[in-house]
Every structure is written in structure tokens, then in C-alpha cells.
């Protein structure tokens, strides 16, 4: 039990540091507060998935709209957290590719 608590805390700490570093990079590279706010707004969903993975995984009875399927079974928290990490890292990568397409040259 103690090991999983420390692993979860490590994941939360790394995700907060990653999101913070991304927001700081956006501020440095663009110099615009609007871009920093958008980066912060983007990071909220992945951070919620990582920080509250077990709680969001237990969420059932939710429909994503009229005519769409209802979530009727719990999802393991590790999958929710992995999805949050995937969304966070791919979003950061996508931002750099779009805003700096010739960055590698």
C-alpha cells in the first residue's frame, strides 16, 4: 500500500512539474498572457485525470450527450491516469510542432 501511495504521489508531482514547465515555456516563447492562459486551460483536464484517476474511474451513469452511450462500468484508475499522461504529453508535443515547425533545423 505504501509503495502505491508513493508512486501516485510521484506521478502527481511529475505531472504538475510538466504542466508548469509547459506554461512557463509558453510564456517565454510567446510573451503573451493569453497563450499562457490557454496552456493552463488545456492542462486542466489531463491533470484532473492524473490527480483524480481513481475517482474519475469510478464515475458511472454518465452520458456524453443525447444518443451517445452511457458509461456503466468503472474504469481502472491506472488507465485514466495513463490517458491523462498521454493527453498531456501529446498536447505539449502538438503545441510545439504547430508553433515551431522548423524548430529542429
Walk me through what this model shows:
A two-stranded antiparallel ribbon has the order 1-2. It has helices at residues 2-30, 33-51, 53-57, 77-99, and strands at residues 62-63, 70-71. The termini are far apart. The protein has one domain (2-99). The chain has four helices and two strands, in the order αααββα. A hairpin with a 6-residue loop joins strand 1 (62-63) and strand 2 (70-71).
Brief description of this entry?
The chain crosses the membrane at residues 7-29, 35-53, 74-98. The chain is mostly helical and 105 residues long.
Features of the shown structure:
single chain, 105 residues, mainly alpha, two-stranded antiparallel sheet, 72% helix, globular, transmembrane, transmembrane helix, membrane
Write the layout of secondary structure elements.
Layout: H1 2-30, H2 33-51, H3 53-57, E1 62-63, E2 70-71, H4 77-99
Antiparallel strand pairs: 1-2
Helix pairs in contact: 1-2, 2-4
The number of helical runs is 4
Instruction: Tell me the structural class.
Output: mainly alpha
Number of domains: 1
* Rg computed from alpha carbons, rounded to a whole number of angstroms: 16 Å
The count of strands amounts to 2
| Head-to-tail CA distance between termini | 47 Å
Which sequence of strands runs across the widest sheet? 1-2
Unreliable sequence segments: none
Relative strand content: under 5%
SSE series? HHHEEH
Helix content: over 70%
Largest sheet: 2 strands, antiparallel
Give the rounded overall mean pLDDT: 86
Task: Tell me, briefly, the overall form.
Answer: globular
Amino acid at each position: 500500500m505504501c509503495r502505491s501511495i508513493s508512486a501516485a504521489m510521484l506521478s502527481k508531482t511529475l505531472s504538475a512539474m510538466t504542466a508548469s514547465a509547459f506554461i512557463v515555456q509558453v510564456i517565454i516563447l510567446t510573451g503573451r498572457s493569453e497563450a499562457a492562459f490557454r496552456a493552463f486551460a488545456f492542462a486542466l483536464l489531463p491533470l484532473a485525470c492524473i490527480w483524480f484517476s481513481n475517482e474519475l474511474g469510478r464515475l458511472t451513469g454518465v452520458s456524453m450527450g443525447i444518443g451517445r452511450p452511457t458509461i456503466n462500468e468503472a474504469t481502472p484508475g491506472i488507465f485514466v491516469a495513463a490517458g491523462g499522461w498521454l493527453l498531456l504529453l501529446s498536447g505539449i508535443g502538438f503545441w510545439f510542432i504547430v508553433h515551431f515547425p522548423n524548430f529542429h533545423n
